[in-house]
Amino acid sequence: MTQRSALDEFKAVLGGAARAIAHDAEVELAFTADAPHAAGKHIKVPMPGRNLPRTQAMEARGAADSYALQLRHHNAAVHARHMPTEPDARACYDAIERVRYEALGEREYAGIRDNLAAAIEQRTATD
Question: pTM for this structure?
Fold first, then answer.
């Protein structure tokens, strides 16, 4: 029987947490070297180093939590119906929606709050 690496275990736990947060057993999680993103129920988060540095693990956890909260709390039809047409207004509208669904998760779970804070810190450092 082959032994799983710490990175494999982290991915399995992160995927399970994303499914639990989203309330959806079909959510799939994978690592990426590119920017984190989600398409449907497929979440891609930044791959941490093999020794799971704390800052990189927190960034991956924050990205996974954010996308899982989006799956749980975001209504694409309602969002599209009220979306402004002007690009800057649309960007603000999208950002406010992200804050809304992340705040719902932060209110319920301190761990999600910490993960999202780490991910936001990383995003703003690279923007």
Answer: 0.91
